[in-house]
Design goal:
six-stranded mixed beta sheet; seven-stranded mixed beta sheet; alpha/beta
Amino acid sequence: MSRKFNVAVAGATGAVGNEMLKILHERKFPVGELRLLASERSEGSFLEFGDGEYMVHKLTKDSFADIDIALFSAGGDRSREFCPAAAAAGAVCVDNSSAWRMDPEVPLVVPEVNPQDVALYKKKGIIANPNCSTIQMVVALKPLHDAARITRIVVSTYQAVSGSGQKAIDELRIQSGELLNGRSAPCKVYPHQIAFNCLPHIDSFLDSGYTKEEMKMVNETRKIMGDERIRVTATTVRVPVFYGHSESVNIETEKKLTPDQARQLLSRAPGVLVVDDPSKGLYPLPIDAAGQDLTYVGRIREDESISNGLNLWVVADNLRKGAATNAVQIAELLAEKYL
């Protein structure tokens, strides 16, 4: 690709923003001008990109002149405020927050699953990046859905603290050290101790008893897969892992799929790596997925309680494929086919 594209990263100093910069460089995205944007408190600081250092500027509605693609990871409130301004200036926004995901005029895209939906960005100039746990699940399930049509999904997630940002990473590290040395562990990010513990509580609770995180997985899965008939139920759990979300996924299909057929389909699927030989202790682990862009799938076995059911274990790096890498892949599709 000979053309270069002017890129802005809003929320550049955050955990996902930093990953976006790293992945833009790793994947050799054709960046012309790079504009780093963040809150006022980060203004004037510098971040590395490739062999250079770039100054961080304050995010304003006037930040997007001559920008082609704006990658947003600045939180939902800022996305709602600044994405329309960026789009009005001519940039295409790829937003990592939940602000636009269920807007019927905004495509919700996972490039391995529904790349054709990128074309719908023209309605508002915005493309939404799905929830991290949804991304890895639909990457694993799309080839199975195409082959046998999934009718129901039951998923339990085991999500790393990095999904809550740098302060949560620090809290797990500090709590672990304090507890191992016989001292009490302060809780600032989470309502309960996260070190050596599991919290069945991600995002706020709704009147239904589900959390917002759980309902994101329900609604986003249907939108991305393009099938409102899929029944989805989710339980999301925060676990004392730094990087990498894990998921226990149970599916029911219209047509029968054997575990071997599922392995064959997944072994050919884009973005998927099958790691499935329990007799040798081989199955997906978050420590192996950390720093990688693939979605790892293993423990593929028949659900013997129903006629057409499978169980899978799905693991991916939540900051990379679950956020930054997916956003950069969307930018690559924009650069290749639409801009």
